[in-house]
């Protein structure tokens, strides 16, 4: 490994390359690595008490920023593979991106389009386009994976742009904004105070963690029957098939991660804490696995082969949860594209049916 650049000993000021190994890759609030140098054991011991809190904060930030970037990459992946806006041209003028859709006709088409990556010339424009019109998508479809990375979070929104509020155990607070690129906010994680002062002109709205994910029952309702699928009020808010597909893609991401965790007997939390090179190699491997599963599944629609999952042997404490995951695995493994929506529809309506039955029974008892 290359020698770190020399710094000054925190205690005595002598030039040294030795650092506190625990927070060597720790970060400050600006996402910059800030090692603490000590020329030797004595100087480190002398500062031990004062350094403890700083060390913990720097390490927590490393995990925070890595986790945020990882999640943002995943969100970009599934937007790139499952893009729901038909864009035929993009023009950049006076710092603004103008997008052009084809002339509107009333035909119901396939709800996904190839992401027009060839129309953008730089990464920033690409990210802006990828997140275009994404209001609550990350909060709704990324919730489970966000929860895996950041156990404690809070849903928060500003005029319909949903983000996550992350209070760290160290007392610092951050915002996880996976779709901010459409507003020129490209970072995945931003200190809360800065975010609020820079991007918001009113107080944010806080909701319990998972609120947006829970709102997917609206989707189930829209899926009661196929005629309603295309006629429901929900359609005004977009094609429900898009939401259904995003829901399944998000489950696919979760399954891929669970598969990796079981196979490697590790977890994302452990991964984010690893040394730089190990972290980069392994996270690249995980992301490539996810990307290939997403594109395989989307390619299935064009007649390719879908991804394949073995049944995970991991036992869930909650038996009902296990059943849900198994069902998802089965659908992802064994359903042909033609019957995919039908199957989802029947599951949704079975669920709806049971709910109605329960409601009727409850009413009858009154
Ligand atoms: Zn020293
Ligand atoms: Zn340290």
UniProtKB/TrEMBL annotation:
SUPFAM superfamilies according to UniProt: HIT/MYND zinc finger-like
Keyword Zinc: yes
Keywords: Metal-binding, Zinc, Zinc-finger
A Pfam family it matches: zf-MYND
Domain of life from the UniProt record: Eukaryota
MYND-type domain boundaries: 9-55
Molecular-function GO terms, alphabetical: zinc ion binding
Keyword Zinc (UniProt): yes
Record-given protein name: MYND-type domain-containing protein
Organism the protein comes from: Saxophila tyrrhenica
């Amino acid at each position: 490994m290359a020698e770190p650049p020399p710094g000054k000993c925190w205690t005595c000021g002598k030039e040294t390359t030795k650092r506190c190994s625990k927070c060597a890759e720790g970060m400050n609030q600006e996402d910059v690595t800030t090692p603490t140098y000590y020329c030797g054991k004595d100087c480190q011991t002398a500062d031990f008490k004062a350094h403890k809190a700083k060390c913990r904060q720097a390490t927590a930030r490393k995990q925070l920023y890595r986790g945020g970037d990882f999640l943002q990459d995943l969100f970009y992946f599934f937007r790139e593979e499952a893009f729901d806006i038909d864009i035929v041209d993009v023009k950049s003028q006076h710092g603004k991106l103008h997008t052009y859709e084809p002339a509107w006709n009333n035909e119901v088409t396939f709800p996904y389009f190839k992401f027009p990556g060839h129309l953008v010339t730089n990464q920033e424009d690409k990210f802006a386009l990828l997140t275009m019109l994404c209001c609550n998508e990350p909060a709704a479809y990324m919730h489970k994976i966000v929860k895996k990375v950041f156990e404690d979070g809070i849903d928060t929104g500003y005029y319909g742009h949903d983000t996550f509020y992350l209070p760290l155990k160290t007392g610092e607070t951050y915002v996880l904004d996976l779709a901010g690129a459409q507003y020129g906010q490209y970072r995945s994680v931003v200190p809360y105070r800065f975010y609020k002062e820079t991007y918001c002109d009113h107080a944010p709205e806080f909701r319990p963690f998972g609120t947006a994910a829970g709102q997917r029952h609206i989707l189930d309702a829209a899926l009661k029957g196929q005629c309603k699928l295309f006629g429901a009020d929900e359609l005004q808010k977009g094609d429900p098939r898009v939401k259904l597909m995003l829901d399944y893609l998000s489950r696919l991401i979760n399954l891929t991660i669970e598969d990796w965790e079981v196979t490697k007997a590790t977890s994302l939390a452990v991964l984010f804490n690893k040394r730089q090179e190990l972290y980069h190699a392994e996270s690249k491997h995980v992301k490539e696995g996810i990307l290939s599963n997403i594109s395989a599944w989307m390619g299935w629609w064009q007649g390719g082969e879908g991804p394949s999952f073995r049944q995970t042997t991991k036992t869930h404490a909650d038996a009902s949860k296990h059943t849900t995951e198994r069902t998802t695995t089965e659908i992802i493994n064994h359903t042909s594209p033609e019957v995919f929506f039908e199957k989802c529809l029947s599951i949704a309506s079975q669920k709806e049916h049971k709910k109605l039955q329960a409601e009727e029974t409850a009413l009858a008892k009154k």
